[in-house]
Amino acid sequence: MTTGPEPKQQKRQTDPSESHPRVPSMAEVERRQWHKGRWIVFIVALIVAIIVPYGVGRMLAMNDTQAIVDIVEPFDPNGMALVSWAITVAMFASLGMAVMETRRALWRVLFIIGLALEQLLAGIGMLRLNFWYSTYVVYGDSAAPINASNLGIIAAALGLAVFAVVYVGLLVVIRKDSRLNVLTRSWSALAMFFILEVITLAVVLLSGLSTIV
Known about the structure:
- The protein is built from 9 helices and no strands.
- It has about 210 residues and is an all-alpha fold.
- Helix content is about 75%, strand content about 0%.
- Helix 2 (about 25-65) crosses helix 3 and helix 4 (about 75-100) runs parallel beside helix 7 (about 145-175).
- It is flat, with a radius of gyration of 28 Å.
- The protein starts with 15 loop residues before the first helix and ends with a helix.
C-alpha cells in the first residue's frame, strides 16, 4: 500500500540575532577604545596647557625680567594689546569650532595651542586682579606693554562674556518659527562673536587704556 509524500514540516523562522547576538568586530572595539583614548589625551593636554605655560611665563618674568623687557620694549602698547587679543580670540574661536565639529581633531589641536600661548602671555604679565601692582614691581617703568597685553586678554574675555549673554538671550526670546531665528545659526553666531570681540578691542584701543597703564 502506497502512501502519498509526507507533508514537509514548516521550520519556524527565527531572528538570528535573538539566538546568536551580534558580537562587535575588532575594528568596532578598537574604534570605541580609540575615541576614549583620544578624549583622555585631549583632557590631559588641556590641563597641561593651562598649568605649564602660565608657570613658565611667571618664571621668565621673575628670573629673566630683562630678557622679557628687551623683547616687548620695541612694541607699542596698542600693538601688544592687539597681539594678545588676537591670540585669545583665536583660542575662543577654535573652541567654538571644536564644539560644532566634534569629529575633526584639528580644531581641538588649535585650541590647545592657542590656550598655551594665551597662558604663556598671562604668566609673563602675571595676570590677576591686581596685575598693575605686580607688573610695576617686576618690570618697573617698562610695564606698559605687559599691562597692555593683559588688557588685550581681558578684552577678549569680556567680548566672549557679552556674546554668551546676547546669544542666550536670543535663544530665549526668538521663536523657532520666526525669521529672526537665523541669528541663532552657527555661522551667524560666529559672525556676531567676532563683531563683539572687535568692539571690545576698539574700546580698549580708542579709550587709551592700553597706553595709560
